[in-house]
Structure formats: C-alpha cells, structure tokens
C-alpha cells in the first residue's frame, strides 16, 4: 500500500504554535511497535531524510477527530498511530504527531483527539479552536448509535458554516461509520452514511477500528488526498497552555486538566 510509517508517534506540547512545534518535546517512550502489517513498511530514518533523498517537499496536515461519546475516536486514532486496538482508552485531550510516507512524499500528521464533553460552553470554545487549527476533519459515528450519526450530520453543517470555512468550496471532511464489526446491532444503514457524505461533498468510510487496520489507514489516506487538493492557507497557531500527554498515557485512564 501507499503508506509507510517512518517514526514513532510524538505527542506535542502546545504552548507554542503548531508550526513551531515541529521541534516538539518527545515524551516517555511510546508503547512497543506492533508487528508491521504486510502492506506497510517502516521507512529507514526520519521523514526529513527521505525528503532529502527524494527531493520531495514534506507536507504537514492538522486533522481533528470529532464525534459523540464512545463512538471510537480514540480507537481510530490509536489504530492509525500504533496499528493496535487496545479496547479501552484514556479520557485525554491529545494531539499526536507522526510521520508517514504517502506516494513517495513525507507527510507529518498532527491528530487532535479529544473526549466528548457535555459541557456546552467548553465544547463551543474548543470547537472554534479546532476549526481554526484543522486542515481536515474525521467525523465519527457508531453504526449502532443513531444519535451519534445525527450529531455527525449536525457537525458537518457546523463546520461548513463556520467563519473559517465560509467561501471555501471544499472542506476536507471524512464521515466515518465505526464499529462495522457490530453489524448485528446496526441502527444506521450504510446508505444513510453514504448519502450524508454525498449530499455534503464529504468522503465516506465504514470501518471497524477493532477489526480492520487497513480501512482505518484508507480513511486517513483519503482525507490527506482531499487536503492536498484544497490545501488551505497557513493555519493560525493555537494558544493553549498545553495539551500534553505522552503516547503511553493512551493506555491509562486519566483526564487531563491542562486545557
Ligand atoms: N466492537 C467495537 N468496539 C469499538 C470499536 N471502536 C471502539 N470500540 C469500543 O468503543 C468504546 C469507546 O471507544 P473510544 O475510542 O474510547 O471512543 P471515543 O469516541 O474516543 O470516546 P470518548 O473519549 O468518550 O469521547 C471502547 O470500549 C472501545 O473498545 C470498534 O470498531 N468495534
């Protein structure tokens, strides 16, 4: 396949702008690497070395993962970053960074995964920050949870009508129906997801973070392709005191108080 993992994921400390955070602090050692699936090969050295040898311009993309509670946002993020499905995930606000090679070109993905919050005021303010920061969106619902699908439908509209995207022809959004393995409990049909995506000019994937690594890779690949097509102007930096968790924190149940 097209993607090569080229380094271990890093969790960035956001007390400076994202673009300058390319010199992000590495944190305690990440969990051990999963066995590399046959379609993916680790590239030797860092993405930058590949950049030099291939004379290709390295791309960086900010991706926000959104959706209601327990739809599998963290599961999808961790699947992409580590190849693993670990079952339970910490309720932590995190931005992870990882280098990939995509069609011969180095790509750094910064992925913002946050737990769903019922605190509307906090959620509102976070939403604005996310939209300002993001180059692309992964909007996740569970195929067993109709309310989560309705929420994604509303999110698409909210994102598209936000002032950051007004006048933008195409907003890179992928609608993701997760938990495909639980088809016996399905309450949202594939056609509904597909129709939503079609009518709003989004991409659509049905996946199982639990059972299928390659479909998870495919959805992020699709999104990066969209981002490349509609490459936006430079995003404004965030001004957080710090969203800081190491990759190892994914494996513990802790809530960050750093926002
Ligand atoms: N069967 C199945 N379970 C899944 C899948 N993806 C996630 N889960 C489970 O769903 C639960 C919630 O997953 P999370 O990844 O924590 O969901 P989240 O959207 O990040 O949840 P919040 O952080 O609460 O917003 C966990 O018990 C996961 O093991 C999947 O594809 N199939």
TrEMBL record:
It is an enzyme of class 3 (hydrolase). Its EC number is 3.6.5.2. It catalyses: GTP + H2O = GDP + phosphate + H(+). GO terms for molecular function: G protein activity; GTP binding. InterPro entries: P-loop_NTPase (IPR027417), Ras-related_GTPase (IPR051065), Small_GTP-bd (IPR005225), Small_GTPase (IPR001806). Keywords: GTP-binding, Hydrolase, Nucleotide-binding. It comes from the Eukaryota. Belongs to the small GTPase superfamily. Ras family. This is small monomeric GTPase. It comes from Menidia menidia. The lineage of its organism: Eukaryota, Metazoa, Chordata, Craniata, Vertebrata.
């Amino acid at each position: 396949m097209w993607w090569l993992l080229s380094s271990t994921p890093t969790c960035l400390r956001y007390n400076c702008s994202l673009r300058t955070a390319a010199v992000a602090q590495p944190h305690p050692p990440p969990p051990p690497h999963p066995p590399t699936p046959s379609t993916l090969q680790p590239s030797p050295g860092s993405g930058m070395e590949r950049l030099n040898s291939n004379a290709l311009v390295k791309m960086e993309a900010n991706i926000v993962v959104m959706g209601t509670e327990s739809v599998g946002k963290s599961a999808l993020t961790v699947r992409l970053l580590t190849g693993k499905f670990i079952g339970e995930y910490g309720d932590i606000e995190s931005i992870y960074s990882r280098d990939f090679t995509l069609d011969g070109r180095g790509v750094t993905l910064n992925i913002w995964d946050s737990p769903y919050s019922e605190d509307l005021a906090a959620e509102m303010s976070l939403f604005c920050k996310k939209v300002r920061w993001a180059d692309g969106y992964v909007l996740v619902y569970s195929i067993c949870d109709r309310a989560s699908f309705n929420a994604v439908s509303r999110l698409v509209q909210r994102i598209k009508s936000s002032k950051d995207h007004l006048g933008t022809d195409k907003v890179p959004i992928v609608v993701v129906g997760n938990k495909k393995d639980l088809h016996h409990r399905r309450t949202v049909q594939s056609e509904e997801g597909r129709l939503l995506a079609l009518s709003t000019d989004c991409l659509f994937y049905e996946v199982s973070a639990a059972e299928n690594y390659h479909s998870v890779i495919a959805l992020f690949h699709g999104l990066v392709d969209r981002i490349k097509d509609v490459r936006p102007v430079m995003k404004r930096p965030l001004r957080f005191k710090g969203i800081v968790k190491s990759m190892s924190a994914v494996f513990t149940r802790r809530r960050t108080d750093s926002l």
